[in-house]
Amino acid sequence: MWNAFSSASRPGSISRRCLSNATNNEGLTYLLTLGVRVLTVTEFVLRRALAQEQARLPDLHPENKQRQTDTPTAERILKAFAKVSLTSYRMLLERTSCGG
After folding, report:
1. Predicted TM-score of the model (pTM)
2. Phi/psi at 75 (nearest 5 deg)?
3. C-alpha span between 25 and 57 (Å, rounded)
């Protein structure tokens, strides 16, 4: 989980100009903590579901594709879904009344 926190605070991720204002600092702190909360809940829910199903996820370790895990990190899950795209189609149906 702390990987997400440390990757967001790498040098160069946020410009110094953004940090010069106290309001910006509050906003960035809020967004960062919100992101960490989302990642934490994602990991918790996924790990709980895997434990209930007694399942393991394959293909999350780039160094060893054969390795399976029952405790995936949110970062690796998001990387696994990075190339997935979602397309949504909405079909409008015209209503006609029959009768006169």
Report:
1. 0.58
2. -60, -45
3. 38
- How far is Cα 54 from Cα 48, in angstroms, rounded to an integer? 10
Written as six digits, the tokens of 18 are 């953004």
Q: Tell how far CA 39 is from the center of its chain.
A: 6
Measure the CA–CA gap between 56 and 71, rounded to whole angstroms. Answer: 8
Predicted confidence band of residue 6 (pLDDT cuts 50, 70, 90)? low
Tokens standing for residue 77: 């899950």
Average pLDDT over residues 61-77: 84
Q: What are the residues facing 57 on neighbouring strands?
A: 69
Long-range contacts, stretch 40-47, CB < 8 angstroms, 24+ apart: 40/1, 40/74, 42/74, 42/77, 43/1, 43/72, 43/73, 43/74, 46/72, 46/74, 46/77, 47/71, 47/72
Sequence-separated (6 or more) residues with CB below 8 Å from residue 21: none
* Domain boundaries of the chain, sorted by first residue: 2-8+24-80
